[in-house]
Design goal:
single chain, alpha/beta, UDP N-Acetylglucosamine Acyltransferase, domain 1, six-stranded mixed β-sheet, 15 strands, globular
Amino acid sequence: MLENIKEDLRALGGGSAGLRTLVRGLLSQGFQAVLVYRLFNFLHRKRIPAQPFRFFFERFIEITTGISIPAACTIGKGFRIHHFGGIILHPSVVIGKNCTMYHHVTVGDIGGTGGAAKIGDNVMIGAGAKIIGEITIGDNCRIGANAVVNRDLPDNSVAVGNPCIIREY
């Protein structure tokens, strides 16, 4: 857990995880949400009961930051929420290492059925993007602002538009 938090700080600080970056992170709503997620994900994986505290902290973060990251999500180290607000993740989401997510991103299922996306390493998800359904997003992908992605993306591709158009880069 601590190694993941250190890598999250490095992603926030552009490669540095010093005191200045820590203070910046603690003042950042995105990092606050990731920090609460990391703590309760650790407890969830170790099967250490954390209710009702988890419910209280997750709801507090949702209300104050507009970010919902359930403890059941699987998120790799180096995760960065670039701007806070409006980020909703499904509990079955899997996100790889070194991913960046901008504000108003939704990663969910198809209307209450099925699972959610598996997102590879080094993926950037632009503001307002929606990733819907049990799909796979490859490594090193870029998802443009307001794109609606409902099909698999191969590695090293760019998705733009609604419905998304996939381009190699």
